[in-house]
Amino acid sequence: MVNLAIFASGNGSNAENIANYFLNNLDINIVLIVSNRVNAYVHKRAKKLGIPSVTFCKSDFADGTSILKTLKDYNTDFIVLAGFLLKVPETILLSYPERIVNIHPALLPKYGGKGMYGDYVHQAVKAGGDQHSGITIHYVNENYDEGDIIFQSTCEVLPTDTPEDIANKVHALEYEHYPKIVEEIIKNSFPKTD
């Protein structure tokens, strides 16, 4: 059994989608949801799903020691970022090499980096006149959105699309692909032994 923790800062729709995907999975278990915001809606989703959730303040994420202890307490093997807006501390990166993944709502390397999240990304895609957008699933390293790319999927951006239209297309790709790609990565990272 591989124990998964999800880091989320806000609404938590991707976290819930991932949790539901793995609900009856005998090989992958979601043991914890971690947030940096006590009022994040993801905590309500976690409660509804019966998954423990905890909040750590910004200073905890600057150091990472207390978060790492909690992850170890829950026997966490793998971390998935789902709308998580802070940098992952070096202590956690070193403890989970190539075992932390993120999803970005654009086709990296375009529209990535600090401050490029959510609606800001979709507004930038629209302002840039791009004909395509999409999602990028990547490993997490010490820089925002610069880890090795694992998977990308695209959607068409029409001239008439608003940033909200682009967001809706990108969300559909996130919900369709993220849980499946996470499952593939975990299966490759933790091969079963009979």
From TrEMBL:
N(1)-(5-phospho-beta-D-ribosyl)glycinamide binds at G12, S13, N14. The keyword Transcription does not apply. CDD domains: FMT_core_GART (cd08645). Signal peptide: none annotated. Pfam families: Formyl_trans_N. InterPro entries: Formyl_transf_N, Formyl_transf_N_sf, GART, GART_AS. PROSITE patterns: GART. The active site is at H104 (proton donor). (6R)-10-formyltetrahydrofolate binds at K58, N102. The record marks D145 as: Raises pKa of active site His. Keywords: Purine biosynthesis, Transferase. It catalyses: N(1)-(5-phospho-beta-D-ribosyl)glycinamide + (6R)-10-formyltetrahydrofolate = N(2)-formyl-N(1)-(5-phospho-beta-D-ribosyl)glycinamide + (6S)-5,6,7,8-tetrahydrofolate + H(+). Its EC number is 2.1.2.2. One of its GO terms (cellular component) is cytosol. GO terms for molecular function: phosphoribosylglycinamide formyltransferase activity. Pathway: Purine metabolism; IMP biosynthesis via de novo pathway; N(2)-formyl-N(1)-(5-phospho-D-ribosyl)glycinamide from N(1)-(5-phospho-D-ribosyl)glycinamide (10-formyl THF route): step 1/1. GO terms for biological process: 'de novo' IMP biosynthetic process. It is an enzyme of class 2 (transferase). Residues 3-181 form the Formyl transferase N-terminal domain. PANTHER family: PHOSPHORIBOSYLGLYCINAMIDE FORMYLTRANSFERASE. Belongs to the GART family. Catalyzes the transfer of a formyl group from 10-formyltetrahydrofolate to 5-phospho-ribosyl-glycinamide (GAR), producing 5-phospho-ribosyl-N-formylglycinamide (FGAR) and tetrahydrofolate. HAMAP family: PurN. This is Phosphoribosylglycinamide formyltransferase. It comes from Fermentimonas caenicola.
